[in-house]
Amino acid sequence: MICTTMALLVLSGERNLLVNGDFRHGTRGFSSSYGLSTDLLGDGTYAVAKDPKLKHHGACSIQDPKQGNRNMLLVNGSATANLCFWTETVRVQPNHSYEFRISAASWSKDPTNGAPRDPSPGRILLRINGHPVAPVFELKPGAGDWVHFVARWTSGAETEARIRLYDDNTNIIGNDFAVDDLAFVLVPH
Ligand SMILES: [Ca+2]
After folding, report:
1. How do residues 91-141 score in pLDDT, each as one tens digit?
2. Within a 10 A sphere around the Cβ of 185, how many other Cβ atoms?
3. CB-CB contact of 103 with 150 (8 Å)
4. Which domain does 148 fall in, by range?
5. How many structural domains compose the chain?
6. C-beta separation of 167 from 96 below 8 A
7. What is the CATH number of the domain that holds 72?
8. To the nearest whole percent, how much of the chain has pLDDT over 70?
């Protein structure tokens, strides 16, 4: 199984510079300004699990987007702006282009009728070295309705990329989401 995975990576010629982008190693390999939580009840908390339903009693059950390693990062959006929920710093080569990828889906229920629909979906903002890189990633309201986002970044004179993810939505009703399959890869010339 390991050999198969390595062969695929070599064939695609692409290496993910993030150490735990699919969250198979739990909460290792990244940092967060949110609080690590066992129940995700508080705003501004996060957890890694195979299903938000296993952590938050009022969550919808959603599945990993790739059905492989099933862990995902679960976020209960903060009411405080500019609080980073995921960050990792990686070394980069100057004057090269890189691509950041992420999948994201809502998981909360509409409190007015219990429907599997977030009344205020998360809005993910990507900053690298302090600068917004792309328009905000707008999540879909439907629980488990994964959206795949891609953003291109050019290093210029930089030798490291401080990659940070924020929730641009500070609403405390809804605003709960999962992210998975984060990748940061060198774009060939
Ligand atoms: Ca995963």
Report:
1. 999 999 999 999 999 999 999 999 999 999 999 999 999 999 999 999 999
2. 18
3. no
4. 3-8+15-186
5. 1
6. no
7. 2.60.120.260
8. 93
For residue 69, pLDDT over 50 is answered with yes
Which helix (H) or strand (E) covers residue 137, if one does?
Answer: strand 137-138
CA of 52 to the centre of ligand 1 (A): 13
Q: For residue 112, how far is its CA from the centre of ligand 1 (angstroms)?
A: 30
Report the C-alpha gap between 40 and 50 in whole angstroms.
14
Q: How long a stretch of residues is the chain?
A: 189
| Ligand 1 centroid – CA 157 distance (Å) | 33
**Centre of ligand 1 from the C-alpha of residue 69, in Å:** 5
CA pair distance 168, 3, nearest whole angstrom: 40
Residue 82 has pLDDT above 90, yes or no: yes
